[in-house]
Amino acid sequence: MGKILLAKMPENYRNNYFISTSAMDMLIKFGDAESAERIFRSIETKNIITYNAMIKGYVGNETFEKALDLFEQI
């Protein structure tokens, strides 16, 4: 259901960091880290909230090396 909503979401809403971060969180909780990564990469101006959401997702999915790599990019 969540992926259907994301697919139908207008492009200008995807550029909202609050919505993008929530979408990343949802995808990660359902084990779709790849889609969450695509959203993360598409965010033009990342902030501590978007970085934290992705790092939290990596840790939750036990991809600790990716979490550390992303932390070092901040």
UniProtKB/TrEMBL annotation:
GO terms for molecular function: RNA binding. PPR repeats lie at residues 47-74. One of its GO terms (biological process) is RNA modification. InterPro entries: PPR_At4g14850-like_plant, PPR_rpt, TPR-like_helical_dom_sf. Transmembrane segments: none annotated. NCBIfam families: PPR (TIGR00756). This is Pentatricopeptide repeat-containing protein. It comes from Rotaria magnacalcarata.
